[in-house]
Amino acid sequence: MTYHNGNNGHHDHALADVDEREYETLIIQGRGKLEGMSYHSDAAIEDAVRVILKQIGENPEREGLQKTPSRVAKMYAELTAGYHIDPDALINEAVFSVGYDEMVLVKNIEFSSLCEHHMLPFMGRVHVAYIPNGRVVGLSKIPRIVEMFARRLQVQERMTVQIADFINQRLEPLGVAVVAEGVHMCAVMRGVKKAGATMVTSAMRGVFRDDPKTRSEFMAHIERG
Ligand SMILES: Nc1nc2c(ncn2[C@@H]2O[C@H](COP(=O)(O)OP(=O)(O)OP(=O)(O)O)[C@@H](O)[C@H]2O)c(=O)[nH]1
Ligand SMILES: [Zn+2]
């Protein structure tokens, strides 16, 4: 839909210059992968950033800001690349049959994401454990799975659950545990301004949910740092 201001056919604001179909195409062009692909800029995002710059009282044409709209557009392509990752390509058949049924734990996986409420970063660490049921996944794939769900607009709870459910579906293990610890810039830089507060979320599936001993073994591992 386009909006006209009614007098000379000019649009009210820059975003309205792009109709919806065009806008979708631009979004698709703007997508990026986590690596191995350059990020394209997105004209509609650039226009929107120029509007924001003007509205906060800045001059988008001044030297330091001239390239900012295209930088921001590329930045969003990178920070939201997780929407466009193909989970099958990510796993790349790196699921192996192994007769190992003890806990596999990958801890201190760093993540950064954007909160969906303010589009400000939240970042921290994720710890992932599972107990295989005949199948294990390539070690590097666990941080990649975390990235796929972090590089979207998120709430930390949903990111945590998505990581757990994805591993649960792909490996059908005896259990999965995911704990995320995040610091939210929307609570640090603005609003309540609580710099020291960390949010901890968890998702437990299978034996981690049903068996307190397995769960506390996992918690003991991650509390050790
Ligand atoms: N549960 C949860 N809340 C989040 C997350 N990221 C941001 N929030 C919160 O989402 C809430 C949005 O609340 P609103 O009252 O709609 O927004 P607001 O007026 O900006 O709120 P304040 O931050 O309290 O100033 C805030 O309490 C944020 O701290 C997250 O990952 N999980
Ligand atoms: Zn927020």
TrEMBL record:
Q: A Gene Ontology MF term for this entry?
A: GTP binding
**Pathway, per record:** Cofactor biosynthesis; 7,8-dihydroneopterin triphosphate biosynthesis; 7,8-dihydroneopterin triphosphate from GTP: step 1/1
Which EC main class describes this enzyme?
Answer: hydrolase
The superkingdom of the source organism is: Bacteria
A Pfam family of this chain: GTP_cyclohydroI
What is the reaction catalyzed? GTP + H2O = 7,8-dihydroneopterin 3'-triphosphate + formate + H(+)
Which residues does Zn(2+) bind? 115, 118, 186
Give UniProt keywords alphabetically: GTP-binding, Hydrolase, Metal-binding, Nucleotide-binding, One-carbon metabolism, Zinc
GO terms under biological process: one-carbon metabolic process; tetrahydrobiopterin biosynthetic process; tetrahydrofolate biosynthetic process
Which GO terms of the cellular component aspect does the record hold? cytoplasm
Per the UniProt record, which EC number(s) apply here?
3.5.4.16
PROSITE patterns with a match to the protein in the record = GTP_CYCLOHYDROL_1_1, GTP_CYCLOHYDROL_1_2
GTP cyclohydrolase I domain mapped to chain residues: 45-222
Show the InterPro entries listed in the entry: GTP-CH-I_C/QueF, GTP-CH-I_N, GTP_CycHdrlase_I, GTP_CycHdrlase_I_CS, GTP_CycHdrlase_I_dom
> Which family does the entry's similarity section mention?
Belongs to the GTP cyclohydrolase I family.
Question: What subunit structure does UniProt give?
Answer: Homopolymer.
This one is known as GTP cyclohydrolase 1
Organism per entry: Roseiflexus castenholzii (strain DSM 13941 / HLO8)
